[in-house]
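Weekly modeling sync, notes
Attendees: S.R. (lead), two postdocs, one rotation student

Agenda item 3: backlog of single-chain predictions. S.R. asked that every request posted to the team notebook include the full sequence so nobody has to chase files. The rotation student volunteered to paste the first one in as an example of the format we agreed on. Action items at the bottom.

Example entry:
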Amino acid sequence: MALSDALVRDSQGATRAALRLVALTHGDIEAGLALSDAAGWNQTADDWALFMERGHAIGFRDDASRLVATAAALPYGASAGWISMVLVADAWRHRGLASDLMGACIDRLRAARVVPFLDATPAGAAVYARLGFAGGFEIDRWEWRASTSAAAIADDSTPPDARSLDAAGSVDLDAIAALDRAATGIDRRFLLESFLARPDTRAWLSGEGEGSGFVIARAGRRATQIGPLVANNTSQAIALLASAFASARAVAGRSVLLDLPRCRVEVAAWLEAHGFVRQRPFVRMSLGATHVPAPGDTSFILAGPEFG
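Predicted structure, as returned to the notebook:
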């Protein structure tokens, strides 16, 4: 379907209030934030801008030009692309808008000859499976709330290695991007560059050469988001996580979120010991991949379901 004023029709052929399918621009950031805020998500204006600048962000407007649904396709290099930000205003749900937007994002990524990926909730996974997406590894979103008891986050439980890490920033982009590419198999340099350039972002590096690791913590709309985190082993991962968490919890009134592959059981145990609770599950899915998605050996915490 062209991005035009064409009428959108439902499965019975009836018009759906003359909705228009449009490409989103920077002028739509506030409307996009209103939709993601209503869903309780953590995306910021910078995140929405990234989808618009580096991806294919689309949506439906009603006859009053209000944005009522969105989706985005974000290609990473020549091999993979992420579908996310599938949001529909309450009054417009169950009318097929999300399916139409999903189809447009799939078509966009396929036209670019990249494999579509997404991180789905259990309810979404059932829908995406009918579209041909295959499930891979399971992910848990963990949350630490600022009201957590201080007894659960005592400084004497912080691994000693966490005190000897190096603070990192945009000057370390080459090293961080190389580690991330080795962990994920995709090129996300522009994403990491965006994270590191944001004023409230903190990052750390550990080790040297092949034994290096990194973690990034950035300000989300309602909580600090830790991730991605790449490490050579679990001990290094926990040391990096401890530094990011210590920095994040020092911000008064801010909760902390992160997305952990379920197979990382030792890191999950550390999170539980420090007052984190599982918030919701996801599953990594792909459409047309030659292998079922699995976490890389050095990938410990993900960038988030919207970024992979």
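Discussion: group reviewed the output briefly. The longest strand covers residues 134-144.
Action items: rotation student to repeat for the remaining queue; S.R. to check formatting next week.
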